[in-house]
Design goal:
By secondary structure, the chain is mainly beta. The protein folds into two domains: 129 residues, no CATH class; 231 residues, no CATH class. The strands form six sheets. Strands 5-6-7-8-9-1-2-3-4-10 form a ten-stranded mixed beta sheet. The longest helix is centred in the C-terminal third of the chain and has 22 residues. Keywords: Signal. This is Lipoprotein.
Length: 491
């Protein structure tokens, strides 16, 4: 018994000493202001740059960085001849392909980066986002500034004790005012609300509406709202309406598209009706020439029987089958779609045996993520099991013919740091206003120097579950034309 007590004492001493004084941890590194192990600490030389979007660099700012040194440590950041004191660093490890697609809207390969993972270091001063360094090799980083990517190599792990640079103070917002004092921007926002079920299980209808918001010199000029979806085309404005019709105790939803103000129902999708089913159609997105929706079929007990995506050209919504992914992005797009689907199946091992292996090209749509449009596909079950399918991201950028403008003047990470509850954002090509959505509200902000203004210019209450299915920008003289159209049409 005495021997047992001695062994027990030694065990307790070992356990307690391990709890009280850990020497190391296998947890992932998360950089904080107190962390002395800054993995990008050192002196870096900027030796190359790439202008992916081929935009002119304002004031020839490329000379500000190229052939110059960056110095990074916990106490300061010296870059472009400017000195930032007491910077804060945040670290995260990301999937390279998803990061470039979701945050930069490019394929990382155009930058010569073929890594699976990247290390991202976000730098801020007093809570204000500053730079984001992308570490893609032990001694190589890149960063984005004014639409240009700069590449730097590490020359030393140490920094100067007294760096010579201009100390940076927070600049006045007035210094960012545009030269053109008569900037006009307007946005048409299409919204769809989610369906409800009542106490008896009856399925409600989605509501659709369009908001028109315009600003002149960063001041709200007009705010209007209309039922249904009003969208611009080269032939003028058109209107989309979803109508529910009842047949022998079942309902069927049809899509009606007409020139705006015209009630002749010139374009009607003559959908076939199910024999003993209810049919719902959710509009997922609409652009100038394409319409994406989700088809849902319900049995008499309002239990889902089938769900699938379909994309149709606006000029031919009567066609029976939706467009194939290769119809839009060619054979290369088809390969990307198949590889994306296979990757999704592989990451859901429990569903692998239940899902179809033959990927349907036409089963895709467009959704919003991190302030951008992206393609999403759907994989059906093998045996038609109810509510069993797998949605997956298709890792390729939408072409201009699908979505003309899909850039952010204020980066998504800056939006989230400023408004953590933000779920989506749209910024004007004029770089003057931004529309930020949360779960319950829509806010309009002015933009100064790549940052949101201090207070929103406009707040709009959103309905429960309401999401954006369209965003179309008007600039300069078109703002007046679009505003007059909304004034003239009062239906």
């Amino acid at each position: 018994m005495r021997r047992f007590n001695i062994i027990l004492c030694f065990c307790l001493i070992f356990i307690l000493s391990g709890c009280n004084a850990p020497r190391f941890s296998g947890a992932p590194k998360i950089l904080s202001p107190e962390n002395n192990d800054l993995m990008i600490k050192g002196k870096w030389y900027v030796e190359d740059y790439k202008n992916i979007n081929h935009k002119s660099v304002q004031g020839n700012n490329s000379n500000k960085y190229i052939n110059s040194y960056i110095q990074i440590n916990n106490n300061f950041l010296s870059l472009g001849g400017e000195l930032y004191l007491n910077p804060k660093y945040k670290y995260r490890r990301v999937n390279a392909q998803n990061y470039f697609l979701n945050h930069h809207k490019i394929d990382g390969k155009v930058l010569g980066i073929n890594r699976e993972e990247l290390e991202i270091f976000s730098v801020s001063i007093e809570g204000k986002p500053l730079y984001e360094f992308i570490k893609y090799s032990p001694d190589k980083i890149l960063f984005l500034s004014d639409g240009v990517y700069y590449f730097a190599n590490r020359r030393s792990n140490d920094t100067d004790s007294n760096p010579k640079a201009k100390s940076v103070k927070e600049e006045s917002k007035d210094s960012y005012e545009p030269v053109n004092k008569n900037v006009k921007s307007g946005i048409l926002i299409g919204l769809r609300s989610e369906r409800d079920k009542d106490e008896d299980g009856n399925i409600g209808e989605s509501e659709y509406r369009t908001l028109w918001i315009s600003a002149i010199n960063k001041n709200i000029f007009s705010y209007r709202k209309k039922p249904n979806i009003i969208f611009p085309r080269t032939s003028g404005f058109w209107e989309l309406e979803v109508r529910r019709e009842n047949f022998d105790g079942y309902f069927n939803e049809g899509i009606y598209i007409n020139s705006y103000g015209n009630k002749s129902n010139g374009y009607v999708r003559n959908y076939s009706r199910g024999l003993d089913t209810n049919i719902c159609r959710n509009i997922k997105f609409i652009s100038n020439d394409y319409l994406g929706m989700e088809f849902i079929e319900w049995d008499k007990n309002n239990i889902s029987k089938a769900e699938s995506y379909v994309v149709l050209p606006v000029d031919n919504i009567q066609q029976i089958k939706g467009l194939k992914f290769s119809d839009i992005l060619g054979e290369q797009g088809k390969i990307v779609q198949e590889n994306s689907a296979k990757g999704a199946i592989a990451s859901h091992e429990s569903l692998k045996s239940k899902l179809e292996t033959n990927i349907k090209e036409e089963n895709f749509t467009m959704v919003r993520k991190n302030g951008h449009w992206m393609f999403k596909g759907r994989i059906d079950s093998k045996n038609g099991e109810k509510d069993l399918f797998l949605d997956y991201n298709i890792n390729i950028l939408p072409p201009k013919k699908f979505i003309f403008y899909d850039e952010l003047q204020v980066p998504w990470n800056k939006i989230k740091e400023r408004i953590p509850e933000a779920v989506d954002v749209y910024t004007s090509p004029n770089n003057d206003i931004a529309v930020v959505l949360t779960k319950h509200n829509l806010f309009v902000y002015d933009i100064y120097g790549g940052e949101l203004g201090e207070k929103p210019l406009k707040k709009v209450k959103l309905k429960d579950g309401e999401t954006v299915i369209m965003a179309e920008w008007a600039l300069d003289d078109f703002v007046d034309k679009w505003d007059r159209l909304f004034k003239e049409q009062n239906h």
